């Protein structure tokens, strides 16, 4: 029964995706990389949410909540503010410029080499960090939740390799051969399943600890440890309250506003109106994120009395404890869809970056769209294989996958965000300033977190990595402004309208944005 329900939902998603994309030729760059610029608000929102939501969050963030409680909700609720900023400020400029990749803006604003450096940083981050962690955390979820070693009679290590390669191969088929539209449609369907399955776990968990009553379950949870319901973290927390006003918002702005794997969905919008509605719809759902990504970890803390080998066992063990046997197959399919979404989305974006920003720019300038897509697919296959080989070795990574992922991502997130923000807000900063800032930012952050912190000052005596990000962000901006004063561009930069899509904004974009901001602030006031 478990296997049948798993296969049924998985095949259903694949069949619907194939039905809606079987007539797509994917012969032009816009067709393959941006789904023909045809995505509507619902598809954009679903794809954004499922690209973001995967097992590194289900396991990692719930693991953090198991240890620290509701304060880790900052990673979810503050994302809504970043999406509002993207909808109001960044997306109109992206669509006006007719961008396919974020680094393309860097080429028009600065120069080709700046674009290439940014694309290379994105790709290195994806292949070394993001793709392997998504595969590893997904495989770990399957191995832990569904007793794969026992079911198949193999070792834990063999089961891990099997799951990594299974997820990687199927995800690669979607991403490399189907293009963005296939990824986005499968994401939208899986998003529905994930919302149902994801909300089912905390509901069943509360019923379990409340003897059949959700209200009693919540009361028991609060009475057991009221400190777990305080959203204001102290200096020793993984998210100190002060970091919300420094590096936290920078990380969120990078992820939702400039990260190619995410923003590519909004760039594929039919028009600005649909893109903004998609972002705001996703922001509204994201406010509910703690119900799926924080509350289960807190329930697991109550249920297991804090006694697990590692915090990242919290979510898998809770699922095993409260999920009825007939639902195991459906939930496995939902988890599988979430894993695949994050993996194939990052892989599809990698193919886009390589094909347009590296292959066509530096290897074959005269390549047709078909040739660019052909070699982009080949690169995607190589990248997927590398990620599948690297993923199983992450078993030795530090405890707390989510925090580890966020810290390592700083190597490229803050430098890229810096030059994009300065690029849009100024008109005379030259290309040399951007190149210095992006290289210096990556190098200094790496030295700070991976040399000075562990080997010179020690973990206890060093600033939080989110504060370090903010310091380097401000420092890089100052450096760019100084260079701009000493050696400005010869003429003002002007963003030209490409006429690719209609950029008439959503009529109620400001009103809806205000409502979202009020809800986010109110949630912090309530839990403080």
Explained architecture:
This protein has helices at residues 2-21, 29-34, 41-52, 55-58, 60-68, 74-96, 102-109, 112-145, 148-152, 156-209, 214-224, 247-257, 260-267, 272-286, 289-293, 295-304, 314-322, 328-363, 369-390, 401-425, 431-457, 465-486, 509-526. Mean pLDDT is 83; it is low at 28-35. It is mainly α. The protein is globular. It is built from 23 helices and no strands. The protein has a single domain, classed as Sodium/glucose cotransporter.
What form results from the Cα inertia axes?
Answer: globular
Integer-rounded radius of gyration: 22 Å
- N- to C-terminal distance: 45 Å
Tally of separate domains: 1
CATH top level class name: Mainly Alpha
Ranges where pLDDT stays below 50 over 5 or more residues in a row are: 28-35
The CATH topology? Sodium/glucose cotransporter
Largest sheet: none
List the secondary-structure elements in sequence, H or E: HHHHHHHHHHHHHHHHHHHHHHH
Fraction in beta strands: under 5%
CATH architecture: Up-down Bundle
């Amino acid at each position: 029964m478990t296997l049948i329900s798993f296969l049924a939902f998985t095949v259903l998603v694949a069949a619907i995706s194939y039905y809606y994309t079987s007539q797509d030729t994917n012969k032009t760059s816009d067709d393959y990389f941006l789904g023909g610029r045809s995505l509507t608000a619902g598809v954009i929102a679903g794809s954004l949410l499922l690209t973001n939501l995967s097992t590194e969050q289900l396991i990692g963030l719930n693991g953090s909540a198991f240890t620290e409680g509701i304060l880790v909700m900052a990673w979810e609720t503050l994302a809504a503010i970043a999406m509002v900023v993207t909808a109001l400020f960044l997306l109109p400029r992206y669509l006006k410029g007719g961008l396919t990749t974020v680094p393309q803006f860097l080429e028009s604003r600065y120069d080709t080499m700046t674009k290439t450096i940014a694309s290379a940083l994105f790709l290195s981050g994806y292949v070394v960090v993001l793709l392997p962690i998504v595969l590893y955390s997904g495989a770990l979820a399957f191995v832990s939740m569904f007793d794969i070693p026992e079911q198949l009679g193999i070792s834990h290590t063999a089961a891990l390799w099997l799951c990594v390669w299974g997820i990687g191969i199927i995800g690669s088929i979607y991403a490399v051969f189907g293009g963005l539209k296939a990824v986005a449609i499968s994401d939208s369907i899986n998003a529905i399943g994930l919302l149902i399955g994801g909300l089912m776990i905390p509901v069943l968990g509360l019923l379990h600890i409340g003897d059949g009553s959700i209200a009693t379950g919540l009361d028991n949870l609060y009475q057991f440890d009221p400190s777990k319901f305080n959203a204001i973290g102290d200096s020793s927390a993984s998210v100190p309250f002060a970091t919300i006003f420094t590096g936290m918002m920078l990380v969120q702005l990078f992820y939702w506003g400039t990260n190619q794997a995410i923003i590519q969905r909004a760039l594929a919008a039919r028009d600005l109106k649909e893109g903004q509605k998609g972002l705001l719809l996703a922001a509204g759902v994201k406010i509910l994120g703690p119900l799926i990504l924080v509350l289960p970890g807190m329930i697991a803390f109550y249920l297991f009395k804090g006694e697990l080998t590692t915090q990242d066992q919290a979510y898998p063990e809770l699922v095993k404890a409260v999920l009825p046997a007939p639902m195991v197959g459906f939930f496995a399919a939902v988890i599988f869809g979430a894993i695949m979404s994050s993996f194939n989305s990052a892989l599809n974006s990698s193919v886009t970056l390589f094909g347009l920003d590296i292959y066509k720019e530096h290897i074959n300038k005269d390549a047709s769209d078909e040739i660019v897509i052909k070699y982009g697919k080949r690169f995607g296959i190589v990248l997927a294989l590398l990620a599948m080989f690297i993923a199983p070795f992450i078993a030795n990574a530090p405890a707390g996958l989510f925090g580890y992922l966020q810290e390592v991502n700083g190597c490229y997130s803050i430098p890229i965000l810096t030059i994009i923000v300065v690029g849009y807000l100024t008109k005379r900063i030259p290309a040399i300033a951007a190149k210095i800032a992006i290289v210096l930012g990556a190098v200094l952050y790496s030295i700070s977190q991976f040399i000075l912190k562990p080997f010179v000052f020690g973990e206890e005596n060093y600033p939080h990595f989110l504060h370090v990000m903010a310091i380097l962000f401000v420092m890089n901006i100052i450096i760019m402004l100084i260079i701009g004063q000493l050696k400005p561009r010869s003429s003002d930069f002007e963003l030209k309208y490409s006429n690719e899509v209609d950029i008439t904004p959503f009529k109620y974009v400001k009103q809806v944005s205000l409502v979202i901001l009020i809800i986010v602030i109110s949630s912090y006031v309530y839990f403080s």
